[in-house]
Amino acid sequence: MNAPASFARTAPAPSQPAGQPAGAASSAARPLLETRGLTIRFGGHVAVNAVSCAFRPGELTCIVGPNGAGKTTYFNLISGQLPPTAGQIVLDGEDVTRLPVSHKTRRGIGRAFQLTSLFPQLSVLENVRLAVQARQQRGIDLFSMWSRHRDLQAQAMAILERVALAGKRHLTVASLPHGDQRKLEVGILLALQPRVFMFDEPTAGMSVDEVPVILDLIREIRQDRSKTVLLVEHKMDVVRSLADRIIVLHNGALVADGDPAEVIASPVVQQAYLGLPEEEGDHA
Ligand SMILES: Nc1ncnc2c1ncn2[C@@H]1O[C@H](COP(=O)(O)OP(=O)(O)OP(=O)(O)O)[C@@H](O)[C@H]1O
Ligand SMILES: [Mg+2]
Known about the structure:
Keywords: ATP-binding, Cell inner membrane, Cell membrane, Membrane, Nucleotide-binding, Transport. With 284 residues, this protein is α/β, with parallel strands linked by helices. It has a domain at 1-10 and 17-108 and 198-206 and 231-276: P-loop containing nucleotide triphosphate hydrolases (Rossmann fold). The chain is built from 9 helices and 10 strands. The strands form 2 sheets. A 6-stranded mixed β-sheet has the order 6-7-8-3-9-10, sandwiched between helices. It is globular and about 55 Å long. The protein starts with 32 loop residues before the first strand and ends in an 11-residue tail after the last helix.
């Protein structure tokens, strides 16, 4: 299906920043992150198809689209989990397309880790402390080790307070229920202090009372005008309450990009891309 006319967009020339923010971020601000013609093929299937988009500091962009649209794959490309078939990823003016995940993380592209790939047998506190430590990457100074340890511990505790896990700091990660694991993922992301925060359905599988903790944190991160937030989200009430801008992926292609109210209100987008009844507007 063709893109709706009002949201149709063409890929920019490779040297130009793509997309104009519709939300709070100044259109004059230099993009913090750009994808230019970003593409990945799996055999004959193009999962992400020439996506050109620029994300500015101070902007929270929701990425929506039907199941299988390519949202998670787009994140996998940006964070370095998958190498693109074509296209570029530019972070703060620097081409980072081919950098491995660890280098991208160090440069400030932050994506919630799968906790299973961290230290499931260590405690919640230890996992966050290690993330704080990884970010600081200071050399070992034997004389200051103890005070440093206390400092790291205090920073990790402050983060655990923010994600409402302080009371569970001594539990092993493996023993945490799903909702707490998702909160810890966000905590570890906070500890790494990225410039670009990427959340892929951060509240999926959470109980209703846990969701506000995560949404409030995302709101808090968004207050920092130096950060860029990308949020893949199906729940339209969440999208409405958080987005400065919405982009829509469909069959791997960017088919809409604009002001949240306009994108959501578009009947074509609602029906074709979100699969939503026009009045209801809630996917989950
Ligand atoms: N490693 C892979 N190998 C082959 N195909 C893949 C791979 N990763 C993703 N795909 C395919 O790419 C397409 C996009 O998948 P993706 O997971 O990015 O969709 P999504 O928009 O995140 O969907 P959902 O809303 O269900 O999470 C799908 O058709 C998927 O099967
Ligand atoms: Mg996905």
